[in-house]
Amino acid sequence: MKTKISAFNSVFFIITILNNLNYCHAFLEGLYCGQDNCYNVLGVTRETSKEEISRSYRALARKWHPDLHRGDEAKAIATTKFQLIAQAYEVLRDDESRRDYDYMLDNPEEYYHHYYRYYRRVYAPKVDVRIVIVVTITLISVYQYYASNSRYKEAIDYFVTVPKYRIQAKDIALDEGIWPTVTSTSDGKSRVKQRGPGNKQKLKEELKQEEDACIRKVIEDKMNIEGAYSKPSYKDILWVQLFLIPVFIVQYIYWYARWIYKFDIKKEPLGEVEKHYLIRKYMNLSEFQWTQKDPHEIDEYMREELWIRENFEPWKQKKDDEIRAKLAENPAYKRYRRYMRKGGPGQITFLDD
Question: What residue stretches are annotated with the J domain (predicted)?
């Protein structure tokens, strides 16, 4: 009988020790309030509201503020206590942090999981990711506009200085009646004649400035600059492109369905636009590259009926052979081939000679 009682007491003692170990294990050094219970530090319970927690924190903070204590030892104790109170308040005032802390108290055995949840929240970005994305896209859009506008002005400044384009712009201005003269300005208003010394030179300078402004305006209005130096358009801005993505998707679906219906199902003949598209597709050219081609080249493609794959393949092979033949006769290309046959550029190796 005594043996059974002794065994029962031993089991009860072991269970009690394990329970105490689990309870101690619930508080992890370096997490939250360390080996202290954040609720006990603030003198509250798990059912306490956020308002009551705030009131308790303010009362304890006033009591343990280091400036209110005299002496080095008392100030050191107050500093440690004040820091622990502040840490407990930081843990319990935030709903997510408090929820993680309660989970740790209820599940002390999930040791590594508690570390993961704690440091994930501590080192997570404090700023809303959506705000970061919006600000980034806005900055890129602003940079796009100003960079495009700067390149466009640079191109206009260059064309204004080229005599060929200045003469053409002047002829256009004369034909349209907007060229400034001694008696009229570029906007058609009569010029007021001024008398007195120095007015003649002043009039010449004023006339020269108006002529330059008129040439610039004609070039901006009449010259079609494409590519990287083209005139800025709101459609090229990233924000606008993102908003137009659904429109582009709908347009593509409509275009693709129309193509299948007209040319695959109904077997209608291809139009000129569709023929150009197929040729451009076979040549792997973008729409901009296609628009930069000489009209005579495009006419040649149409005469060769290159929108038909069976006609395009031999035509492309022929062009490739012509290019290789020209390169074979090019002295610079010959020198390059001899250079490559001799080993090309030197290489650095770590092999012993």
Answer: 37-105
